[in-house]
Fold this sequence. Notes:
The protein is of the alpha/beta class. 42% of the residues lie in helices and 15% in strands. It has a single domain (6-250), classed as Aldolase class I (TIM Barrel, Alpha-Beta Barrel), CATH 3.20.20.70.
Amino acid sequence: MLRRPLIAGNWKMYKNRDEAVALAGALKEGMTAKGEAPADALVCPPYPCLQSVGDALQGSPVELGAQNLYYQPEGAFTGEVTAEMLLSVGCSHVIIGHSERRQYFAEDDETVNKKVKRALQAGLVPVICVGEVLDERDKGITEQVVERQLSGGVQGLAAAELAKLVVAYEPVWAIGTGRTATPEQAQEVHAFLRVKLAGLYDQELADKTRILYGGSVKPENVAGLMECPDVDGGLVGGASLKADDFLKLIYYKG
Ligand code: 13P
């Protein structure tokens, strides 16, 4: 089964509104000039920029996503946002369980699972992030870690609910370090995750789920990663903040 690649930009806590709108405008312009892309494109700006970035992307194929959400439908939860709020400003996707959320904001698999359920109920596509820290890789427990994160994240959900699921494998040691996983290392974990999805659900779901690689993806290394049969795109931090670089990733075939 052919999976259409997805190149997703996670802008993290970068870009104020004017900078974000300028970047979105440059992406739209670049894609209009270059024409049909070999991949779907998604950008995930900070919350305050979602509306204006969405406006700036109108008429382009670039989709809009958020970097997080809260699992309650509404209420007195100062500082949090709901799935419906994200939908109301044009989001189609939401990143859930990014390693920075797990590391700095104490998100565990149970919280990730609640957020995934809420996103799906509301009609947002969850991009569930998994990945080991360096110590776990050195100890040889990478597969155990990503398996726990994946099965914990989708716990209690049926295959039909996960039809559009996106998984992102982001080895924590490769994030923002310039130290990318080799295509072989990425492929090994991606293939493992796909086998696990087939075990948790069925081969059909495993075959259609896009598994993105994240961690220092750049124009110089994207082609090698995209050649891997189980790498279906990228979740990109640093290189998504410059229009030229991100366009090179979207048009990774040159
Ligand atoms: P970098 O591309 O900056 O390494 O970040 C990866 C990432 O965390 C994307 O979510």
